[in-house]
Amino acid sequence: MEVRDPIFGAIPLSRAEEPLIDHPALIRLRSIKQMGFSEWSFPGAAHSRLLHSVGVMHLAGQAFDLAFREHPLPEPRRAELRQCVRLAALLHDLGHAPFSHCTEFAMPSLRALGLAAVPAEVLKARGDRRASHEDYTIGLLTQSSLTPLISRGFAFTAWTTSCATPTSPGQNTARSTCLGCSTT
Question: For residues 103 and 97, is the Cβ–Cβ distance under 8 A?
Fold first, then answer.
């Protein structure tokens, strides 16, 4: 299967990625504007979060290939890591609300999300801060029907993918602390 992208052309999907594209969490990204209300001023800025995410996945795969061209990894480890990077890129925007960043002011506190991935000490210190789309992404990756779908289809878990999903620069999200990737 492939997705036709207006910039990159045909972007191939692996057999394991195909069920994810058809999952309701990704299907909803088709109706979320990447640029919020920008298309009112810039009519060409009308692409969706799904199209953006598929393009990011494609570029992440290319970046991985370039990064490891001169430092090859043994198979199957290389393929597993490349797939994890592609999946993190594809799923990085799952938690966006309608109208994208324009409605983030209305999100509840981190504590209100009830994320099992957030340890008690993080909730105690930062649980009252406004939840971000990254926090919602963690919830969708670790506490939805995507969780077993990722675990069954890939050589890593939804927790691993959540950990590989980047945060915005300077943002203090729960992900890096709770999943042990780094400290915040």
Answer: yes
Give the distance, in angstroms, between the CA of residue 159 and the centroid of all CA atoms in the same chain.
12
Task: Give the pLDDT band (50/70/90) at residue 163.
Answer: low
Clarify whether 52 is annotated catalytic.
no
Q: What single-letter amino acid sits at 158? A: A
What are 159's two structure tokens? 């927790």
Rounded Cα distance between 83 and 153, Å, is 11
**Cα–Cα distance, 106 to 97 (Å, whole number):** 10
Residue 48 phi/psi, 5-degree rounding, is -95, 165
| Measured distance CA(153)–CA(164) in Å, rounded | 17
Question: pTM of the full predicted structure?
Answer: 0.79
Fold of 2-178: Hypothetical protein af1432 (1.10.3210)
